Amino acid sequence: DRVMMAHPFSGIATDFVVAGDAIVHFVVSARRFWEDIGFTGSTMTAFRLEGEVQSWLAATGHAFGALITPQLLYELGRAWYAPRLAIDWQPATPAEATALFAAHGLVGDFWSLA
């Protein structure tokens, strides 16, 4: 699959095939996602190689957060958003969200909402 995004350094549209070592870096921990959802989303950044993450962090001054694969991000997004079409949908509680992250192997303080 091809992904289009703005390159994190140049802002120029870049496309790449999601394969091999492609990763997505999260700066903001799950506990703080909704404090500034715009900033949270703007710092969920895809990279072709893990080494690019360190260069980007040095250039932006952000601290290292967490890395996941694009496939895992897709699977998590699918599980997170699928129930929202139900008439009786309610936002996930912190415990439910933490359990959903854990079901996808995302455990530890970074992913905990408790």
Description:
By secondary structure, the chain is an alpha+beta fold. It is built from four helices and five strands. The protein has a three-stranded antiparallel β-sheet.
Strands side by side in the biggest sheet: 4-3-5
Shape: globular
Poorly predicted regions are none
The largest pleated sheet is described as: 3 strands, antiparallel
Helix content: 25-40%
Order of helices and strands: EEEHEHEHH
| Distance from first to last alpha carbon | 35 Å
What does the radius of gyration come to?
Answer: 15 Å
Features:
alpha+beta, 3-stranded antiparallel β-sheet, 114 residues, single chain, 18% strand
Question: Summarize this, please?
Answer:
The chain has 114 residues and is α+β, with helices and mostly antiparallel strands. The protein has four helices and five strands, in the order E-E-E-H-E-H-E-H-H.
Protein topology:
Layout: E1 2-6, E2 13-17, E3 23-26, H1 37-42, E4 45-47, H2 50-60, E5 66-68, H3 70-81, H4 94-103
